[in-house]
Write a structure and sequence with these properties.
With 477 residues, the protein is of the alpha+beta class. The protein folds into four domains: 94 residues, Uridine Diphospho-n-acetylenolpyruvylglucosamine Reductase, domain 2, CATH 3.30.43; 118 residues, Uridine Diphospho-n-acetylenolpyruvylglucosamine Reductase, domain 3; 102 residues, Alpha-Beta Plaits; 74 residues, 2-Layer Sandwich (Alpha-Beta Plaits). The chain is 34% helix and 20% strand. The radius of gyration is 22 Å and the shape is globular. The model has no long low-confidence stretch (mean pLDDT 93).
Amino acid sequence: MTIAFPVPDRDILARREAILEGLSRLVAPDALIASEDERRAFDTDALTAYRKMPLAVVLPSSTREVADVMRFCHENGVKVVARGAGTSLAGGAIPQEDAVVLGVSKLNRVISVDYANRAMRVEAGITNLAISQAVAHEGFFYAPDPSSQLACTIAGNVAMNSGGAHCLKYGVTTNNLLGLTVVLVDGTVVEIGGDMLDAAGYDLLGLMTGSEGQLGIVTEATVRILRAAEGARPALMGFETVEAAGACVAAIIAAGIIPVALEYMDRPAIRICEDFAKAGYPLDVDALLIIEVEGSEEEIEDALARIVKVAEPFAPKVMKVAQSEAEAAAIWKGRKSAFGATGRVADYICMDGTIPTGRLPEVLAGIDRIVKSYGLGVANVFHAGDGNLHPLVMFDTAKPGEMEKAEAAGADILKLCVEVGGCLTGEHGVGIEKRDLMTTQYTREDLHQQMRVRGVFDPLWLLNPAKVFPLDGRIAA
C-alpha cells in the first residue's frame, strides 16, 4: 500500500516569495521559517515514512496572530497544516509542498486555574504532561496520558481525541474537555463550550474534538482537572498463553471491575521493554498485563483481591504487585517507553485499531497470522481494557519491499478490527495512514455526509488537505 499525495498547486509555488513577504508582516522575524534547512525539521511527523517539504512554517505567539495568518492564507488560497509537537503516528501533521505549516509550540502558557470548579484554561501548545505538573502541588491532575505526553501538545490531543493508559477509567480527551478557542479558516475566532460540562447548544465541542485539524485551529483549551487519588498501585500478571491473557482481560471487564489502567504486552514487547527499562518484567511468559488500581489502601487491597480471583481460572504464572514508588515507576517506564524501545531494535509501523474486548483472543491470533504471512515480526503493546490495540509491525527499511509489506500487514490488521465490530482508530487518528481504508468502515454515503460537514467549515478544503478522506471521493459542502 503506497500513500498518494496530491500534485502541488503550481500557482501557489510560483507565488511563494509574495506569500512569504505577506506572512512576514504578520509575525515576528524569528516566527517565519523559510529556508530549506530549517523547513526540513517540519517535513514529517512521528510516522516518519513520508516527507514533504512545506512552503513555509509560521510559529505565531497569540490567537490574534493565528487569526491574521489564517485570514491571509484564506484570502490567497494557501493551504494550512496545523502542527503541535509532530508526534502524530498516522501522518496527521505531514505537510504538502504548497501548504504553510502553522505550529502552535509558542502558545504554551497556563492562562488560569479554577480549582473549585476543576477547570484549567491553557494555550494549545502546552504539553500534555505540563498540564498535570502545573496543578500537581494542589493534588490535581489531567487524566488523558498518551505515551508521548512529555512532548505531545493539547492541540494535537484535541485533534486526534487522544487517550492513554489511564483513560480506561477517566476517558479520552473528549471526556475531559470543557471549551475551546478556535480560529476558523477565514480568521474568525470563536469560543466553543466554556468552563463547565454540557454547555448549551449544539455539541460543536464534540464535533471539533477528533476532527484532525480540518475544521479550525485550536489556540486555547479549557480542560477538566481532577483530584488525584489517595494512592495507586500497579501490578504485573504474566500468562503462559496470549489467549489466556486476552480472556482474562475480557473477564475483568465483564465482572464490572474498572481498574485505572489495564495494559497488555506480548512476549516480544516484554523483552524489548525489559531490555530498555529494566522494569522487572518476567521474561518466561507469552503475555503480560499491567493492572493499576487506585484509592485508599483498603480500596487498593480490595480491588487487587477481586482481580486476582477473576484471573484464577486463567492460571497466571506470575503475579507481582509494586511494593514501592520506585517499583511502580519502573513498571510504567517500561510501558511508556515501548515505542521508543522498539525503535532501538527495528523499524516499525504502530497500528491503532479498536475492538470489542471480548474478541481479544481471536484478534491477537489473527494479528500473529497476518504478520507472519508477510514474513515480518510484531510486538503487541496496547490498552487492553478498552480494546485499543497498538501492534508494532516490525521491518527493515534496508530490505527492499519490507516497508510496503509492513503497510499491507497493517492494513489487513485494521480491516480485521473492523470485521469483528471495532474501528480503524482509537486515538491516533486517520491522517494519511488510514485515509484509504475509510471505505472499509463507512459507506460512500457515510463519508459524503462527513465531508459535507467538513465543507461547511472549510469550503475550499484548505485545512490539513489530503488527510482522513480518500482522495478520489472528495466532495465540497
